[in-house]
Amino acid sequence: MIRFNCDYQEAAHPRILERLARTGMEQMPGYGEDAMCDAARARIRALCEAPDADVQFLVGGTQANFTLLAAALRSYQGALAAETAHIAVHETGAVEATGHKVLTLPQTDGKITAAQVDGYCAAHYADEAHEHMVMPRAVYISQATELGTIYTRAELRALRKVCDKWKLYLYIDGARLGYAMAAEGCDVDLPFLARTADAFYIGGTKQGALFGEAMVLLNDDLKRDFRYVIKQKGGMLAKGWLLGVQFDELLRDELYFSLSAHAVRLAMKLKGALTEMGAAFLVDSPTNQQFPILPDAALAELGRNFSYSYQCRVDESRSAVRLCTSWATREADLDALIAELRRLLRK
Amino acid sequence: MIRFNCDYQEAAHPRILERLARTGMEQMPGYGEDAMCDAARARIRALCEAPDADVQFLVGGTQANFTLLAAALRSYQGALAAETAHIAVHETGAVEATGHKVLTLPQTDGKITAAQVDGYCAAHYADEAHEHMVMPRAVYISQATELGTIYTRAELRALRKVCDKWKLYLYIDGARLGYAMAAEGCDVDLPFLARTADAFYIGGTKQGALFGEAMVLLNDDLKRDFRYVIKQKGGMLAKGWLLGVQFDELLRDELYFSLSAHAVRLAMKLKGALTEMGAAFLVDSPTNQQFPILPDAALAELGRNFSYSYQCRVDESRSAVRLCTSWATREADLDALIAELRRLLRK
Amino acid sequence: MIRFNCDYQEAAHPRILERLARTGMEQMPGYGEDAMCDAARARIRALCEAPDADVQFLVGGTQANFTLLAAALRSYQGALAAETAHIAVHETGAVEATGHKVLTLPQTDGKITAAQVDGYCAAHYADEAHEHMVMPRAVYISQATELGTIYTRAELRALRKVCDKWKLYLYIDGARLGYAMAAEGCDVDLPFLARTADAFYIGGTKQGALFGEAMVLLNDDLKRDFRYVIKQKGGMLAKGWLLGVQFDELLRDELYFSLSAHAVRLAMKLKGALTEMGAAFLVDSPTNQQFPILPDAALAELGRNFSYSYQCRVDESRSAVRLCTSWATREADLDALIAELRRLLRK
Amino acid sequence: MIRFNCDYQEAAHPRILERLARTGMEQMPGYGEDAMCDAARARIRALCEAPDADVQFLVGGTQANFTLLAAALRSYQGALAAETAHIAVHETGAVEATGHKVLTLPQTDGKITAAQVDGYCAAHYADEAHEHMVMPRAVYISQATELGTIYTRAELRALRKVCDKWKLYLYIDGARLGYAMAAEGCDVDLPFLARTADAFYIGGTKQGALFGEAMVLLNDDLKRDFRYVIKQKGGMLAKGWLLGVQFDELLRDELYFSLSAHAVRLAMKLKGALTEMGAAFLVDSPTNQQFPILPDAALAELGRNFSYSYQCRVDESRSAVRLCTSWATREADLDALIAELRRLLRK
């Protein structure tokens, strides 16, 4: 079985494992208050051109999301998000478990627009009964989105503007941020994000690290006491330096960016091949997640040797599936996948 | 200003106020453990033909809803509800504040169907990632719904069946239960509800009481320790007998039913008159809430002397509004409203 | 059975019931946004000499407490309180249910001191691991306390000072505020409270109203969006004017104060009589709650005709109990109690 | 600086790091549903002689504790624990953040007794107002405790019995379980725990793993849907096999037990040396945490080269501190510590 169902099925890039092994018997202070975390923080601040940013490391994405939102929201406030947002669908109600409603908006290609946010907030405050409804106080988006698409600078600037208008935090889930930045035509880089968002995280788990996400806090209100919230929500790793070591290594010598570029290059190769074969796509994704629409019969056969992730039924005989490349994907495996797809679609 | 915007703008039926005045200086044990509450409980059990039902009194509807759901759900479970459900829209996220997600389904005339619930649950458990999604564990519906419509016996039986299939509690918000039972063609009565639901409440606030809702618990799992939950969620009235007294009086001599019948008769008079005038309706409601679609110009003028509740825009020049009758509506006031509408629509 | 076990066993003072009856069929806007609530608000602001205070009405004390604290605290913050505080003992963990820990301090006569608060906060922030502990952010006290004692101006000023030092809200539960202000030697009045606390409530339920507590918000941070929190936590009464009417009447013509004075006068009569009989007290209370220590045998017999509230065992043969007077206590009933106690203690 | 302040300042035992490195590029299914987790589960079941146990892996201890308690408790229920319990003191109110009160009992040497639990529950249910108080539903203890002490079989059997009597879950925090089992005189082993507790966890973070805790669920009620709770509370590691790999390795060839024995042997060497020097101890600990009482002057000087953890002031000139050995402690470092202590105490 060759796995293309997700982008977190290998442990970590060898450089990460080596660094971890090398620090194995050194003594370190706990909870992220060590020199390695500080080194990684400095690296991130420099890459983001954000000298005042606070950086805190968390173990995983769900944890990062609900921790940030719990820090941002008062009890009666909620976060606006696409109906396909990870926090709306695939976190077992983790945000609700902290008491906050996820306020969903219809999505287009996994994205929401400034106009939608503006409309929602305008309607909220225009309603005489607005005290009877959850107050929107944050916007959650993902870059890349759950459907592999990316926001442009123009779109993010518009979201920032509407967030300022309605006093909303703009928070960006960067589980696949590297893959987004590696996409052709992506004009959003780290300094832009740091200027635009109130908080975002640089994903490690899906991007070459063993585990870990680096939360970048730009807004002072979110920085204050954030570590209390991390601890309370179970996200404060005792051996915090494990996270610092990984991000320090990942962001050294552009490793993070070259791993991302590798994954996206292979994804584009797959996309090109599928297009050539005449396959349609659920969405036009420029990143490492591809959502081809394939005949059910072909999928059944494909599944014998290649794992994919089922997305949704498209019509009576076809379904959309997700195929992911990652930092770890071997080109030979991808070529085998393409060959198999070619064989199956030719039938 | 004559008010038709809601059905809770008068205090209480004179008989309720008299009973309260009469018991003013009697000494009573607190927290609903008194003879008056017991008398009201006995009356409700008899009306429901449910000798084993537990009955607990709460002050208001939002409180009743989140208290019941907090008692019913474990942390990772949620309640299915129409996207127009009161708990989904107008309770400031009270259910989410107790940690539980409201899982919304598209509505038709304010209602959801057994087939929708079945489809949702089937999809949930069929998904390999179902542990990453909130588990459906309850169905919340309202009788009458937020749009004034009512469920039939057949519909409720189908919901009960699908709830049994997927291990869901069926909970019915009866804020306007009397108005539903008074509707022409309503075949759902209290004994049927008691045989069909796991819990429901008999609304008092909108039905002639000063305040108060009577929660009827049929399922033993929900009865257990329910009073702990009431106390924790702030719903245990120190002078609990105030609730017992009111329900005892309201359910004596069919007062509850005759007050409901009065409101529905007047609502039908309004509906008939509007129909005659050629007005369309957002939904065909047989109960005390009517949702006519009216020209914006007429609405602006109407609002000078009659209050209504704005519902939604229908097209460029027309909006749907809510007009409510209640136990307290005077026929002369309704006639004045009809006359004014006639004048405005004739223009 | 003549009841002295608590101070909320009668419904309401006749003037309250009359006012409610009189407004029974008037039409009112809902949710506390009506002229009667505004009138009561104006009255309270005037009595407090606090023209900028926000006043919101809630149905009961537990609700008032957790709603205020939920509005005041971020997720990782807690409230300091005496180990005997109502929120620590008798609210089924309502504060914890909103996610916040009650941080208890040892009490003396039901009270905590500024020095205790100072010590707690100093130790918290001095601890390297303070991020691993709940951050104190509010002080909760009751006036009168759960043991009937009262704070002096000097004590409250000291608490205010230490709250300013450590950035703590000072919140005062005034379920029995009238009885406190009626106590001999009480130098704390409403204007002083309004100058000293961030929020406090004027209790109605135990002080002559049918139900209801008037929350007085002095700190702007607590005023903001407070009504959202009320709604979310189930405390927004649909017919909000019922609360306004009651407080308007209660605070008119000094009714509130004269009812309180009545209760305290009778309590002092009881205290004097018990002292004369040689009884000891658990605590020296100047308010309507008295905690005599009585022989178990006498208590058993007393319980046949007079209800009391069991407090705690004192030694092998004696227990402390609570005897309450209230606005509704008839002097003849109190005299009967004293006579019975005299008979029993003479044995 | 040689660190003795805690037992998690080195990354992981070399065998763990090697295994992780070896599996680095293998493809694995996510979320703990892989062959390596299953192998570790089988190993744990065998060691526990509990073929029906469910085993789930979590990243850290705070997370393990609040996840288990969230799964075990209904909203109005709390967990009994020593006032020194980790959940009561050092988890930033994580349990309260899930809505549950930690009900603290006075401790002796970090432990609570069956008699205390019995007394608490008897008093709870005997109180007429028990619905106004949090219902005890679980007992939380640590083995070894936060003060290094251990429970005996007899003590745990008594706790089990009282838990059965009052319907309480018995949950054991095993962050330092290996160190407890390695203590001289400890008669509690894994099979005994599995027969006695409803759930416990085998700590990895402090016992040689990079990170991770293995939750062993014995009670069927706790097994049900536990993975939903893990996901919701942020504890489901995407690359779950990282945890399986570590526990599989740690529990192979008795590595876990020999690492624990090493730490305890060194701790006893330290204890013996300190006793010889005439030092007193805060508590008589047979495990890897030692709490000597030392002169403040000596501590100040000690701190230049050796880190320790400040515990509490004992008198004007002396404090208790914590000195920890661990699986990673080098005997030469311990000898250096002993030599330095000897030098300082001789002064």
Portion of residues in beta strands of chain A equals 15-25%
**Strand runs of chain A, count:** 14
Number of helices, counting only DSSP H or I runs of 4 residues or more of chain A: 15
CATH topology of the largest domain in chain A: Aspartate Aminotransferase, domain 2
Please tell me how large the radius of gyration of chain A is. 21 Å
Instruction: Determine the N-to-C terminus distance of chain A.
Output: 22 Å
Structural shape of chain A: globular
Mean pLDDT of chain A: 97
Q: Estimate nothing, just give the exact number of structural domains of chain A.
A: 2
Low-confidence stretches of chain A: none
Question: Which pair has the most extensive contact?
Answer: A-D, 51 and 51 residues
**Which oligomeric form is depicted?**
homotetramer
Helix vs. strand class of chain A: alpha/beta
At the first level of CATH, what is the class of the largest domain in chain A?
Alpha Beta
